[in-house]
Amino acid sequence: MTNGLKKFWYNEEKHSDDSFDEFNQILLTPKSTSRTIVMRSFSRLYHWISTHRILFLIISLIGIPLMIYMLLMILSSNRAFIPIEFQEKRYNILLIVAHPDDECLFFSPTLRVLQTQYHQNLSLVVLSRGNHAGLGQIRAMELHGSCRALNIPSNRCLSLDLLQIKDDPKVWWSEQQLIPIIEEYVIKWSIDVLISFDNRGISGHLNHRAVASAVRLMTENRTNTMIKMSYELKSVSLLRKYSSILDFYWIFISSIPRLLHSLLSYLIPFNLISSTDKSYMLLINTPNDYMASRNAFASHQSQYSWDRHLYLLASRYMFINELKYIDKHV
Ligand SMILES: [Zn+2]
């Protein structure tokens, strides 16, 4: 490096602390290589972060996640995220949940995106009225407000009040009892696609997990041949569940292989690389969808405690749903 450049470098860094200067002097030896240039960039970045900690936190916790959120919204119609079937056909979709409010606390991105962007026909069956605290009647009425906010037709928005299926976090609902009930509505409404919880039930609630088990059994064993596809909502760790928009970091990183696969299948001719399959769906609420989902939950007034306010901001399920395809047994 020339003397002139060295002088410039020292002048620029004259306010640095001693250890930082020592580090840079090592890097400014005549044997500078691309490796030292990279190290120098890192050292300058480290110095910038250590002198702008608050700004760095704001950018990391809000700015970058929001940018990824916008990028994913732009990419959300890519086949990597939404199977071609849902882009080309209009299905009758049935969401099966356990309690009134499950539909907006956990499934609102699924409901909103499939309806507003892909014009799918939605139906909802809630297998109990959530009467564990004696509020079943009120909660059944509140559900209709939620369905209105989510644009689910009122004649396809039901909460059941059955003797053998009661809201209770300590009771496993028998699949043998659930399957005929689900089948009844599959036939009645000519349902093509079932959506429900996965085997961890998002919160681990036994009723959620029992519903998931019944839907999985129905699908795997082809109990009902009308059902073309079934999907389950992916549960994540507690940390990710309450990471709000920060979860977009992980979603973006984990989506890169699917995006690359989709890009290559598009670029390489003769179908040498198959297009992405229907095994996965990523559904992201737009800001408008998020507000509609909040409005839907506002209908569940009996459930509107202080921790629910926090949930609506902190839960990633208010912004993101990942659906996994349930394979049928051959
Ligand atoms: Zn529930």
Description:
With 330 residues, this protein is α/β, with parallel strands linked by helices. The chain folds into 2 domains: 3-51; 87-237 and 279-325, LmbE-like (Rossmann fold, 3-Layer(aba) Sandwich), CATH 3.40.50.10320. Helix content is 52%, strand content 11%. The chain is built from 15 helices and 7 strands. It has helices spanning 3-12, 18-27, 34-51, 53-75, 84-88, 102-105, 108-117, 136-149, 175-188, 201-204, 206-220, 238-241, 247-267, 287-298, 306-314; strands at residues 92-97, 121-126, 157-159, 193-197, 229-233, 280-284, 320-325. It has a 7-stranded mixed β-sheet with strand order 3-2-1-4-5-7-6, sandwiched between helices. Helix 8 (136-149) links the parallel strand 2 (121-126) and strand 3. Helix 4 (53-75) packs parallel to helix 13 (247-267), helix 7 (108-117) crosses helix 14 (287-298) and helix 8 (136-149) runs antiparallel to helix 14 (287-298). The chain is globular, with a radius of gyration of 26 Å. The protein starts with a helix and ends in a 5-residue tail after the last strand. Residues 7-16 have low confidence and may be disordered.
